[in-house]
Amino acid sequence: MTSKNTVVRWVTKGGLAVLDQGLTTGSNFLISILLARWLTAEQYGAYAVALAVYLLIIMLYQSLLLEPMAVYGPSAYRDRLRSYFKSLWSLHLAASLLIFSLLVVSAGIAFRVNSASSVGGALAGIALAAPLVLMSWLVKRVFYLQLSPGPPAAAAVVYCGLILAGLVVAHRYSLLSPFSALLLMGIAALGATIPLVLYLMRDLPAAAGAVSLSEAGLRHWGYGRWAVGSSALQWVPNGIFYAIVSTFSGMAEAGQLRALMNFSAPVFQGYAALVSLLLPYAARIHDQQGSAGSGIFSRRVTWLFVSGAIVYWSALLLFREPAFHGLYSGKYSEVAYLLPIVALGSIFWCAFVGPATALRAMDSPASILVATMIAAVASVAVGVPATWAFGIKGALWAITLSQASGFVAIQLLLQKKVQKAAAQAPVLGLGTTFEFPSDISSND
């Protein structure tokens, strides 16, 4: 009965994590779809280029703050979460100021180069929204460290409601644009996060000891200096192609690329939610069972994620024509035939997540850096000439090749690490299994 109750609690918590990520990023997905329907292809292409910059910022922030937090929060700072969070809040403010300054300068340059383009407005929207959205992610991560995704899921409902209300108002008064859509994301994130901050101020246990800003900063930098490089390189196979496609083929084709990649968003966002919950668990598995346990964890997560992606894409490809018509109101149907290439690249990305999560939990971001470097080199080496010669089709095949290269590389690196650890100090036999920890709280 205890084991059954433990599984039920894990399924419940996993469902809440998916609900949180699904509502939050689903709202952003809705913005992307509505903009694709209501903006011109050139305007939507400008939004896609600016959104790629936004995603790069998120990935770098996650590498320096959120990923180390998921590893060290449930271990080194488990009994000092309040003090730890205060130090991370100071780091967040410093990062936000830097991000805002760089984006404002970039928006000014874009306006000067082409005042008629929507890129400058989109970058200005990101400058205002990014610090608020990143604040929301930081606060939510504290709850995930306590394996308590309930409050973040409730905040996601508030975020979704604010976004939808803002979209209705903006559309009704003809105010919807890349700038206003991104600004709405920031306003909604602020409104949803304030209750979480008040909740933490009241209920987060007092720290057993202080965590200085320098201690937290140095520890995060020690981890993040590797992870930030791998995140930047991981962004290359997808994000850089919006700039490449717009350079060789124009903003309209960049919009077509965004329209195609939108279909991979549900898989990416759903799995990102699960990784937020799985990473602290993977860190615990590695701490208790060593590298062999991490290897078992990686295989199971990989098969689970790949199987789910195959089911999703099989259903979508059967109905891709109605899907394009329903989402985009008849626009972008001319590139619907390219969707199987997007599906193949997405499946390779899903396979990459399992070993990547295990290596992060093993405190081995350098291995991820090597794998993403291989993927980035493959994407640029093939992608630039392929996009020049074949346009958006060449870009999609380059993205798929890079994802496949990254998966093969990271799988080999994980196997090498596990085999080396097993040779030095075997922990688990080949037939050994592990169970979900039963000591998780049932209170969200």
From TrEMBL:
GO terms for cellular component: plasma membrane. It is a multi-pass membrane protein. Keywords: Cell membrane, Membrane, Transmembrane, Transmembrane helix. The chain crosses the membrane at residues 44-66, 87-113, 119-139, 151-173, 179-201, 257-281, 301-319, 335-354, 366-388, 394-414. The keyword Ribonucleoprotein does not apply. Its main location: membrane. It is found in: Cell membrane. The keyword Ribonucleoprotein does not apply. InterPro entries: Poly_Biosynth_Transport (IPR050833). This is Polysaccharide biosynthesis protein.
